[in-house]
Amino acid sequence: MLTCIRPITHFTWCILLIARASYAQGPDIVQGPPPGWELVKITDDPDQDRGVAMNNAGQIVFSKRIQPNPDGTNEEIFLYENGKLRQLTSDNLVDRFPKINDAGTIVWYRQAVDDDWEVVRYKGGVIEQITDNAVHDFQPTVGNSELIVWARQTGEDSAELFEYRDGVITQITHNGLSNQCITVNSNDDIAWVRYDFNARPSWRSTIMCLIGGEVLELTDGTTQAQGCAINDTPTRGWNDNEGIKLWQNGEITVLPNTEDDGSGPVLNNVGDTLYDFWTETHWSPFLVRDGVTYQLTDSPDLNNGGFSINDSGSIALASGDFPEIDIWLLWRVRAEGDFTGDAFVNTLDFQSMQNCMSNVECGVQMPPVCLDMFDFDIDGDIDFHDFGAFQRLVTPNP
After folding, report:
1. Regarding the domain delimited by 43-272+300-332, which CATH topology (the fold level of the hierarchy) does it fall under?
2. CATH 2.120.10.30 region(s) of the chain?
3. Phi and psi for 364 in degrees, rounded to 5?
4. How far is residue 136 CA from its own chain's centroid?
């Protein structure tokens, strides 16, 4: 069941609390990843990793609730790329839910010392605070054109959308409702959910789009529709009590096996749809690819806590047994030493091996996937003994 709560900041958030229907697995659902794909682990520690996002370059960002503060009073931003895990912030503040574009620009929102939430950008190695005011700015996202869009609290139950472009901040919506859950595609089209928390007998919402400068209302505002997916087609995805719905050119289709408890669809530009489903005991990630539905994980110990998908079909998952949530990556199966997955062990893989070795020197946890690929003597580290074994695998490209 989708339930809205009002936290101490007094503006309304929507979260998934309790599912209401029993889980009925369809006969055409395949257990596990698609053939030729595997799940590998990026992090493995007691902290809670969440808010994961991935771009088409394979970079993964997420926020980590640092122990011993599981309440989130110390949450930092991390970046994973090509075998290397880096901590981008170390400010003992709450930095949460980053997004990343294909150029590697990252945005997130931070709880400043005066308790206001502000939008922050990481670009070219520089961290810059975009907003600085006495209201809450939250849920930022960034497009490939460097357009940044976020929600700003304007009342107890209202929030409007704002954008940052070329150093200028502009208000996008002026409807007095709560505009949240924002996605931007490569064409600067925007999708969001417009909530009416004052509707009776219960809150209602409308799925919104700004496509080619035209504002579209894809639902009639009489349901509790949620979801914030849009690709470059653009296809728009959301969920309501009828299941996962996909909109394109005015036509709406419902994904099979998603009735009642399918939620949170995410789309890429090659036709894949990723979504959550409640299985009576935990949330599990499902992938629809080439007409086939795959249940990527099916264990209470791998309770899904968020995901992202890129155009290569790779998926970043925040998954685990709460409160210990780790980051996983769905990538194509590859041979030992072939980190790049191009069927060759060469200088590109050597760069990845160097990245894996440098994690220890930087004081950041070595991604478990590094040990999977480069710990040839299986002694729990990557050293010159492993480098010697790696050299024997190197093959020239044709």
Report:
1. Neuraminidase (2.120.10)
2. 43-272+300-332
3. -105, 145
4. 22
> Cα(276)–Cα(309) distance, rounded to whole angstroms?
13
Identify the sign of the CA torsion 63, 68, 71, 73.
negative
The single residue listed with the structure tokens 């005066």 is 114
pLDDT digits (tens, 9 = 90+) for 50-79: 999 999 999 999 999 986 665 557 899 999
Closest alpha carbon to 307 in 299, 318, 297: 318
Number of residues assigned to the chain: 398
CA dist., res. 269 & res. 272, Å (int): 7
DSSP string, 224-256: --EEEEE-SS--EEEEETTEEEEEETTEEEE-T
pLDDT at 129: 95
pLDDT tens, position by position, 193-225: 999 999 999 999 999 999 999 999 999 999 999
In terms of DSSP H, where are the helices of the chain?
347-361, 368-374, 384-391
In 3D space, the residue among 84, 141, 81, 82 whose CA is nearest the CA of residue 109 turns out to be 141
Q: Please give the DSSP secondary-structure letter assigned to residue 365.
A: P
Mean pLDDT of 75-96: 93
Q: What is the pLDDT of residue 10?
A: 33
DSSP, collapsed to helix, strand or coil, labels residue 227 as: strand
Rounded distance, CA 35 to CA 25, Å?
Answer: 20
